[in-house]
Amino acid sequence: MVAIVDDADRLRRFSRFFTQRIGVLTDRASSDRAVAYEDEALPLLADHGARLLFRGRRADGEDASLPLEVHVIWFPHRAALTSYLADDRRLALVERYGEPFTAKHVVEIETVAPLTT
User: Fold this and answer.
1) Minimum mean pLDDT among 45-49, 85-89, 102-106: which range?
2) Taking the complete model, does pTM exceed 0.85, yes or no?
3) In 22, 26, 74, 94, which residue has its Cα 20 to 30 A from 44's Cα atom?
């Protein structure tokens, strides 16, 4: 089952480890700012016990209304997400870059089949 995490009450409801798929949308004018923000913000995940499992960017020529980037992020527990979101360094980046995203789609995902190598 896939649950769309769209409010604080639903965020608090989950307490075990979880994985999120995040799609970020931006307009052409803000895309460089969005990429620069993510380049600096995503490495902070490790300080909260989280791992960036995948970061992909929309291919050239794709519809600009599709997400600019898709991230798959693993968190060991809900408190790790809360800690990451409250991280002063991440908040400083938000201040510096402003809000480069026109929308964010966050989906909590469950494993259907494990990754194979």
Assistant:
1) 102-106
2) no
3) 26
